[in-house]
Amino acid sequence: GEQKRGDCASGVECFMKQYDVSEKKAIEEIQKMVANGWKDINEDCMRPTNAPMLLLQHIVNLVRVTDVVYGDDDDAYTIPLSLKDYVTLLYVEQVPMCE
Questions:
Q1: How far apart are CA 50 and CA 48, in angstroms?
Q2: Residue limits of the Terpene synthase metal-binding domain (predicted)?
C-alpha cells in the first residue's frame, strides 16, 4: 500500500495504530463510521433548516464524489484506473436523457 510508495500512512493504518487493532477490524470500524456518516447526512437533509436546498445539494454531491474517489481500497488520485469506468460512463457511453 502507501508505505511501499513512500506515502504517508493511510487512514486504516492510523486507525490500527491508534486503537491497536488488526487491519480487518480497522476496515470494519471505518466502514461503520462511513455508514453512520451517510445516515447523519440523509437525516439532516430531511430536517427543516434555514440553509438553502441548493447549498445542501452541493454538500451532498461533494460527499458523493469523495465516496467515489476514496470509497474503495484504491485512491483514485494516485491510481486513476479505478475511475476509468466512471469517466467512460460519463463521457463516452452517455445515457440519453428523456425529452
A1: 7
A2: 2-40
Furthest C-alpha separation in the chain: 56
Q: How far apart are CA 15 and CA 17, in angstroms?
A: 5
Gap between the Cα atoms of 9 and 7, Å rounded: 7
User: Rounded to whole angstroms, how far apart are CA atoms 97 and 99?
Assistant: 6
C-alpha distances out from residue 97 to 43, 60, 64, 94, Å: 30, 23, 21, 9
- Full-model pTM: 0.62
Q: Quick one: which H or E segment has residue 30?
A: helix 23-46
Return the C-alpha cell found at 87: 469517466
pLDDT tens digit string along 39-62? 998 898 888 888 888 888 898 999
User: Which amino acid is located at 86 in the chain?
Assistant: Y
